[in-house]
């Protein structure tokens, strides 16, 4: 699935796709395909660094070896797990929004199979991070998670997404984000473990609060989330 979708681009073509994707994503932030293309064409050095870190981590190496995919056929069992577990929390997050893990766009612009998988993995664990950090999928929640993703992976696309997202904030949302959510997200991203080196599927059955503590996760402040809409 990953290899079949890939397209080889030279540097000029990559630059053209990056610019076109950036403009298109700013005009329509709902275009997941454009955001994905922007991430791939500007993020190769970042994905290479993530790949090196994964190879140094026991769980990261296991992920690279087995290449699990976050698709319905592989994660459907989480709906049957006890309500206190990480897997059940992920199921509630997805089910309450009528999301499907199969909706992620394919990787198209990575040079190697390994880098293509790392890029796909980063895309597919996004909703795990929403669950762990207890962030909604509205504009402030997505922008805050992009800050955490930048802290974790240093992807240029994450910064561009924050810029594009904050440009659409109301004055109240902008004040809330920069006074509370931006500093929280910076701290949360720095404090947590290397989240790309976690084999999440092996931890679905574990207590949500236990895995948060083990991975250094600071959930979004509950007192402020009610004002995020």
Automatic annotation (TrEMBL):
GO molecular function: 4-hydroxy-3-methoxy-5-polyprenylbenzoate decarboxylase activity; zinc ion binding
Membrane topology value: Peripheral membrane protein
Recorded catalytic activity of this chain's protein: a 4-hydroxy-3-methoxy-5-(all-trans-polyprenyl)benzoate + H(+) = a 2-methoxy-6-(all-trans-polyprenyl)phenol + CO2
Localization of this protein: Mitochondrion inner membrane
Keyword Magnesium (UniProt): no
Positions contributing to Zn(2+) binding: 126-127, 130, 142
GO cellular component: extrinsic component of mitochondrial inner membrane
Subunit structure and binding partners: Component of a multi-subunit COQ enzyme complex.
Family in the record: Belongs to the COQ4 family.
Protein name from the UniProt record: Ubiquinone biosynthesis protein COQ4 homolog, mitochondrial
């Amino acid at each position: 699935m990953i290899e079949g979708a890939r397209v080889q681009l030279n540097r000029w073509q990559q630059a053209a796709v990056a610019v076109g994707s950036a403009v298109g994503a700013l005009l329509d932030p709902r275009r997941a395909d454009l955001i994905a293309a922007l991430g791939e064409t500007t993020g190769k050095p970042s994905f290479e660094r993530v790949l090196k870190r994964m190879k140094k981590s026991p769980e990261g190496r296991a992920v690279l070896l087995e290449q699990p995919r976050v698709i319905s056929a592989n994660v459907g069992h989480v709906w049957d797990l006890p309500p206190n577990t990480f897997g059940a929390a992920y199921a509630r997050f997805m089910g309450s929004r009528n999301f499907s893990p199969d909706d992620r766009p394919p990787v198209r612009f990575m040079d190697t199979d390994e880098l293509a998988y790392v890029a796909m993995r980063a895309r597919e664990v996004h909703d795990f991070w929403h669950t762990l950090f207890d962030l909604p999928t509205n504009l402030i929640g997505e922008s805050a998670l992009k800050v955490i993703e930048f802290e974790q992976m240093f992807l240029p696309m994450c910064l561009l997404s924050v810029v594009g997202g904050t440009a659409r904030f109301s004055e109240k949302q902008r004040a809330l984000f920069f006074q509370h959510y931006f500093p929280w997200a910076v701290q949360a991203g720095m404090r947590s473990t290397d989240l790309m080196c976690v084999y999440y599927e092996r931890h679905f059955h574990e207590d949500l609060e236990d895995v948060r503590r083990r991975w250094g996760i600071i959930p979004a402040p509950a007192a402020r989330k009610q004002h995020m809409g």
